[in-house]
Amino acid sequence: xxxxxxxxxxxxxxxxxxxxxxxxxxxxxxxxxxxxxxxxxxxxxxxxxxxxxxxxxxxxxxxxxxxxxxxxxxxxxxxxxxxxxxxxxxxxxxxxxxxxxxxxxxxxxxxxxxxxxxxxxxxxxxxxxxxxxxxxxxxxxxxxxxxxxxxxxxxxxxxxxxxxxxxxxxxxxxxxxxxxxxxxxxxxxxxxxxxxxxxxxxxxxxxxxxxxxxxxxxxxxxxxxxxxxxxxxxxxxxxxxxxxxxxxxxxxxxxxxxxxxxxxxxxxxxxxxxxxxxxxxxxxxxxxxxxxxxxxxxxxxxxxxxxxxxxxxxxxxxxxxxxxxxxxxxxxxxxxxxxxxxxxxxxxxxxxxxxxxxxxxxxxxxxxxxxxxxxxxxxxxxxxxxxxxxx
Length: 391
Hints:
The protein is α+β, with helices and mostly antiparallel strands. It contains 13 helices and 7 strands. Helix 6 (151-158) packs across helix 8.
């Protein structure tokens, strides 16, 4: 019994079976059933149609028209290629299959679900990767600082025992990982939910006639989002997921509460207002006393520079990089040059080293102590010294 002819413009039963197999394979790659994958595709189609202000049927018709135009263009190109034989080909010989195919390699793109809430599994994966040490780098995306990671480090973290342990917990949303392909599928959940996107380095001054700026920060990339979301090991992805925002929200609430409390200061109880007044007066008094002491020590130094050179400082460590109590020690000191300070530090280090060498232990005898002191004296004589020679 002969099969009825296929209407023009409609796929044959063999083509339908091949399309169904390809659809099932694509769904299996994403860890979904064909029904779930079809539902995702329908939702994505409706979202794209809504962006263009069209109904899903109109958007599908528009896509079909574009596909038909592309198919016609490809057929015309094939006819032109067949009409002009390649050099070295015999007349009447069919063109080689490699010549009919496109020379560009196929790219495995990751579909992005724009306009939809993130997948809970993708959020769980992002939260896990955020907790791992992926050595992120800082980049600039659209004028904002973002964290950027490398794909191979993320895949390595997904294949680690820590991920397996976290995925084995009860009520865990982390997808299971068995091999490299499944780890890559888990990572692809991030761009599908717009939690991380692939980026590439760009030069913000490209095309400008001026020279490159000298104050450029080394290792800080300016990046742009790539159209093809692939998962090569050496590719970089920028984090769009910032994690839980409860800390930022708590800090913002505290700032708002503080401003609100300051605004309502006239409504405070009289005891609290008096306490704040006394505290502010005390702080202003301490600040004024500090400035008065700094001015007095400067005047004292200017007088002693001419009276008793090289000059006397009151609290010489007041503005040094030391602790609060060390700033007021010692009480006074003479002005020292940079060379004298360096020689003083070197002498203190040498004396500390010699003290550790010459100090005998508590369990040694007097003979041992004498021999230790004699050996220390010999070492002291053999140490390098700098002597001044009179010319």
